[in-house]
Amino acid sequence: MSFPMQYDLTDRFFMKRGSTPCFDYFDRTKMKNGQYERMGWISFALLEPRFEPNCPAELREIIQSEAQKYFALMGSEVPIPTQDETVTLGYARADYCYEWAKQRHEDSVKWQPFRDLVTLNGYDFAHIYDFETKKRFRDHNGEIPPLIGGTGNWVMYDPSGAKPAYRAATSEGCAEAAKADGNFRTDIQAPQPDADAPDPSVEDEHTDSSGFSPSFS
Questions:
Q1: Distances (CA, A) of 118 to 125, 166, 168, 180
Q2: Cys-Cys with 74: which of 90, 129, 163, 199 at CB 3.0–4.6 Å?
Q3: Is there a single domain that holds both residue 109 and residue 81?
Q4: Strand boundaries in 44-185, DSSP class E
């Protein structure tokens, strides 16, 4: 059912999040089953515009323009209309996934030396929620170990319980607090393998899998 009303395009056309993961676009001059009729949509995942067969040309242009706007924001967290949450635009696009994986790899390369230093100091990391709720973080009395620090989601703890645990907003903040207390060293190095020790990965070529070493004369 259509209404012969005259609307400005900005009044006639509106957007909201639908039951599917996309931005739905409706026409206030058209009704279907007692509701405004959907004319088109843009999926969060691919940012590609789609249209219903009866979508007017003027609304198609607006939806296409909206799709271009969101494409330019690919990878951004944007608020969803009428919802108190955000969505990563274009999260299923091949080009976005490639860049995301590339960035994750670069971040991992930068993070690994610091992560190794934390391990050498006898520490590990946990999220504050896990630290406070999971049994494996409890001490021998079943209590949550005390935390040094204020707020934040990062916890740096000693699995052996020999050194105190630290809480901060960042992993580096935990390490800095432990360093100030003398519980974290930055000059520590991993033990080097003995250059004179035999390589355990190299087997005697004359020894079979049973351990028998044949003699030759």
A1: 9, 12, 15, 15
A2: 90
A3: no
A4: 49-51, 77-79, 86-88, 124-127, 147-149, 154-157, 165-168
